[in-house]
Structure formats: structure tokens, C-alpha cells
Amino acid sequence: MENDVRSKTYANERLTLSKYASLSQNTRGRARAEQPCGMRTDYQRDRDRIIYSKAFIRLKNKTQVFFSPEGDHYVTRLTHTLDVSQIARSLARALSLNEDLAEAIALGHDLGHTPFGHSGERILNKLSPSGFRHNEQSVRVVDVLEKDGAGLNLTYEVRDGILNHNGDGASTLEGRCVHIADRVAYINHDLNDAIRAGVLRAEDVPGDIVAVLGSTSRERINTAITSVWRNSADKPFVAMEEKVRGASDALRRFMFSRVYRTSYAMGEEDKAERMLSEMYFYFTKHPSEMPPVYERIADGEGVDRAVCDYISSMTDRYAVYTFNKIFVPQGWLFVNEQGD
Q1: Which pLDDT band, with edges at 50, 70 and 90, does 65 fall under?
Q2: Domains, the chain, with CATH or none
Q3: What is the pTM of this model?
Q4: What whole-number distance in Å separates Cα of residue 173 and Cα of residue 180?
Q5: Whose CA is closest to 158, among 50, 56, 60, 235?
């Protein structure tokens, strides 16, 4: 009975998916062989493993653009991830690709992001002699850091999509759906957050961009998905039409000039740099004060690798807590302070 469920999924994929889709039964597999699940395909299992990972749960307290914003409706790294997942699944469905694979890649694509968003990434990249890139760290999270060093043992296709989500190099079309979904998601929700924060007004978006993409987030996302479908259905690639891609690139440049590289978004970056730098140098000198899993990494792969793993795993508020615990003097109880 159970084996019939997975077999039915395989049969449905063969019957309904594009010839360019990544069929679950054709996965290149895992680094460590496992007994197949009777109910779920390997891509479905990967999705579930990511959702229940500690790194995924921590995304709720990691910055997207604005550091620790006051308000319940600003995007966090977790809500961004869910947004990417929804758009990636819509793209995969429209193109008759494997939704389960696209969803798993999308849910795992930012697991390695630092506290304080891309500011934290730039800081660690500057501090570490080996450099630091969040896409590579996301793969390291699922390969090495989760489950106290055992990793999640994900399939090749999911790992490949995570590694290449910020470029065009994914080996599957589902991975390329995630690349487009990531861009569409962050440009639109970051624009909404900037308007909500008073950094921009909706009417500040150039009219030629609005004319192509639309004036609301719903319209812009729909335009992007529809454009990819018109341009890529039944073809061995995933891409927007030239006109829509040009307008999307223009909107991205607008966001960099008016939001991402302004004092509004980067106003706290100097503080974040001082804080992460001090912790980096402290733990480099005192690796035994990191949790045991990072101590083991320090012994096996070097202290720099372990410190980058530890700091990048932190949420914004845990980074602040750790910094305060190490560097901020705790209050003293003064007896007879006034000479009483």
C-alpha cells in the first residue's frame, strides 16, 4: 500500500510533467544511500527535512533589509523564503516542472544567511581569509552543520539548486525557477517594506517600469510569472521575455540606489560590523567558548571555518545577546553605595 503512493507519484510525474522536468525517480541521489520512503519521493523528503531543521526555524529572526524593524509586517528572512517558495512553485507549475524540487530548493536557499542580512555577509566576507558567501554556506548548513554535524543528506539536485540560486548555473530548470523567484520576491517585498517605512513613496518608482511591470506587488509578480511562462513553456530554459526582464533589472537598480545602498538600510551597518568583528576575533582566540559542534569543526577544519559557521548561524537578537554577554559589563549590586 505504502509503496503504491510513491509509485503513483512517479507515474503522475511521467504523465504530466514536461520532458525538461527533473523526475523524482531520476534523482542522482544522496551522498549517503538511504532506504527510500514508502510515501514520499526524495524531493518531498528533502523539503520536509529543511522545514524541520533548526536553521530554517532561525530564519524568522534574521534581517531581510531593515535591521530589527519595529512592526509586525516587515519581511524577515523566513517570510522572504516562503515568498520565494510560492513564486518558484507557481513558475514550476506553469512550466510543468517538478514543484516538489523547486519548493525544496527555495526553502533551503537562504539557510546559510548571516545575522543582519547582506551586511553580515559582507562583514564576514571581509573578515575571513577564505571569504564568505551565503549560498555556499547554505549548502554547508545542510551538508555539515545540521543535526549536530551529521547534516541533512539532501539530494544532489536540491543541493545544486541551493548553491546556484543567486546565479544562472543551476543544473535543473527547477533550480533556475528559484533563481528568478528569489529576485522577483526580494525586489517586490523590499519595495513594499521601503514604502511602509517611509523610505519611498509608491509614485517614486519610475513610470517606464510601472508601465511594463505594474503598479502593485501583485501585478508585478503576475507579470513576471506570466512572462516566464510565455517565453519558456516547453523549452529547455527558464527566462523572462526581454522587455519584462529589462524592466525588472531597472527596478532592481532603482532599489539599490534608493534603498539598499542608502543610510536607511545601512544606517546600522557600522555598528553591526564592530559587533561581528569583535565576536569574530574573540572566538578565534577562544574557540572553546563556542558550542561543541563548532569546537569539533575548529579542530578538524580550522578556527576561522568554525567561527564563520557559528556567527553566521546566529539570529540578529542572538548576536546582540552574545556580544553583550562577552563585552558588556554586567550590573553590580553596590552595598552602602552612598555610605549609609
Answers
A1: low
A2: 2-266 (1.10.3210.10)
A3: 0.93
A4: 11
A5: 50
